[in-house]
Amino acid sequence: MNEDEAVSALGALAHTQRLRVFRALVIAGPEGLTPSVLAERLDVARNTLSFHLKELAHAGLVTIEQQGRNLIYRAEYGQMNGLIGHLTEHCCRGGECEVSRSSRCNC
User: Fold this and answer.
1) If you count Cβ atoms within 10 Å of the first and of the last residue's Cβ in the chain, which end, N or C, has fewer?
2) Ranges for the HTH arsR-type domain (predicted)?
3) Class of residue 90 by CB neighbours under 10 A (exposed 0-12, middle 13-18, buried 19+)
């Protein structure tokens, strides 16, 4: 991940609702969630949720799949891991350490 991608991802996550949405999608795992389920679980208006999902998708943190009449949103674990890796790549002066070993999601 380059610096511009990291700034975009961090910017997308720098909002309480977007962070909550992203965490809910991470918890949901590879199955993902529909916007209606997300709106209900997070008690957020659907139009507001749509805006936040668009921002997360623009930053590459979520993917969208059309399944019939539904949209399924999923956390993009590769981008998430890329961001974590970018933030920790020089941890312990670039050597192996506990933070860099445990910071990857294997979903």
Assistant:
1) C
2) 1-95
3) exposed
* Cα gap 64→46, rounded to integer Å: 16
CA distance 58 to 107: 21
Domain contains 107:
no
What CATH number did the domain enclosing 82 receive?
Answer: 1.10.10.10
DSSP 10-28: HHHHSSHHHHHHHHHHHHH
Q: Is residue 10 part of a domain?
A: yes
53 vs 22: CA distance, rounded Å: 9
Per-residue pLDDT tens digits for 26-56: 999 999 999 999 999 999 999 999 999 999 9
Boundaries of domain holding 95:
3-102
The amino acid sitting at 92 is C
Strand-pair partners of 62: 75
